[in-house]
Structures are given as structure tokens and as C-alpha cells.
Amino acid sequence: NAGVTQTPKFQVLKTGQSMTLQCAQDMNHNSMYWYRQDPGMGLRLIYYSASEGTTDKGEVPNGYNVSRLNKREFSLRLESAAPSQTSVYFCASRPPGGGANEQFFGPGTRLTVL
Amino acid sequence: GNSVTQMEGPVTLSEEAFLTINCTYTATGYPSLFWYVQYPGEGLQLLLKATKADDKGSNKGFEATYRKETTSFHLEKGSVQVSDSAVYFCALSDRGSARQLTFGSGTQLTVLP
């Protein structure tokens, strides 16, 4: 049981390049989330998927797109990377049920955009 | 909207000192409250949680009590260890369909031997 996995762990892009961050969970969770973490700002929600086949914008969606490929996988795409997207990106998943169920986080992807 | 305000860091303590990290929140309804911990180079791990007023969450010697009257969820530990050095995040989960988490800005704790 690997939990939440993310690839790659590190990535350096040039401005204007595109890339996809991959996330997968093997816990049969319905909900999945993408966050970015910036110094002094905590984690901010980019997009989430409450269930397979649905996606919704979070607090900071501009410049990103997502795909919920199946129940296990939720990818985040940067179509044209900008230096402001330099951040650490975390994927999380959550089992169904009440508000007490916590989210489980992956190890993160550290992205630098030059 | 929802928001979480955390005590600013960094916080530096000597081993065996008492720890308090303040957290207050603004939310509609009755959110669930969480403390997450992030060790260097790792993702976030749940430390403890509480789902209703006056609930006390506890784990690894850490405690926090859900205080609805003061909208607070302060984290405490009686005697910190060097291994507690990490970043601590307070968070709330609303009761909407997506159960989104709203995080505080995090508090860096360093414990010196």
C-alpha cells in the first residue's frame, strides 16, 4: 500500500514550457486534490475532484488544468509555465464520509520555473 | 469565506520546554479542525483532529481542544523533543461536498538539545 505517490520529485522548466505532474493513490479514495505550497502562505488549493469524472476550481486555478483519469489518478498540467508557478506541489486524497476524515498527502513535487 | 490564522514563527525552544502554537479560525457552520505536521523534505501528515466543540484531539504528546466560543484550536505539548522540529499547520475542513481544507500559514518549530 503505497498511499499517495507523485512524480516527478523535482523539475526545472523554462518559462513557456509545459509539463504534467502525476498523482496516484491506491487507497480507493473518491476525492483528490492539488495544492501548492509557497513560503509563508501555507497550502492553497488549486483544483480538486470530488469523485471520478468531476473536477472543480479551488482558490488559485489560473494557469493550471487537471484531469481525473480514473479513480486512482489525478494529474495537474501547466500549459505555459511562468516563474510565478515556482512552488512545491502536493497531491492529496480523502476517503468518503464525514468531515472528520483527513486528507492523505503525497511527498510533493518541487518545481522551479526559470 | 473560511480562514485560519496561525501564530507566526519561527519558534525556537529548548528540549523539554512547553509548546503552544496558537490557531484561530473563521468559518460558517461547524467545521472539523486539524493539525498537520511537515518534516523536512516530506509531505504533510495528520497530527491530530477534532470534529465538534469541546473535543480534544491528541497524539504523540500533542493536544488541541476545539473551542467554539473563542474559535480556536491551539496546539500544546508539555515537553518537546528535538525530533518535534518541523512545520506545523492548522487547518479546517468545511462540510461541503468536497470537504476542502483551508490551511494556516504554518509555524516552523526548532527544538534545540
Question: Topology of this protein?
Answer:
The complex is a heterodimer of chains A (114) and B (113).
Chain A: E1 4-7, E2 10-13, E3 19-25, E4 31-37, E5 43-49, E6 56-57, E7 64-68, E8 74-78, E9 87-94, E10 104-105, E11 109-113
Parallel strand pairs in A: 2-11
Antiparallel strand pairs in A: 1-3, 3-8, 4-5, 4-9, 5-6, 7-8, 9-10, 9-11
Chain B: E1 3-6, E2 11-14, E3 19-21, E4 23-26, E5 32-38, E6 44-50, E7 56-59, E8 62-65, E9 75-77, E10 86-93, E11 101-103, E12 107-112
Parallel strand pairs in B: 2-12
Antiparallel strand pairs in B: 1-4, 3-9, 5-6, 5-10, 7-8, 8-9, 10-11, 10-12
Describe what you observe in this structure.
The complex is a heterodimer of chains A (114) and B (113). Chain A has 114 residues and is mainly beta. In chain A, 0% of the residues lie in helices and 49% in strands. Chain A has no helices and eleven strands. In chain A, strands 2, 4, 5, 6, 9, 10 and 11 form a seven-stranded mixed β-sheet that branches. In chain A, a hairpin with a 5-residue loop joins strand 7 and strand 8 (74-78). Chain B has 113 residues and is an all-beta fold. Chain A binds chain B through residues 4, 31, 33, 40-45, 48, 50, 56, 58, 90, 92, 94, 98-108, and chain B through 4, 6, 31-32, 34, 36, 42-46, 49, 51, 89, 93-95, 97-101, 103-106.
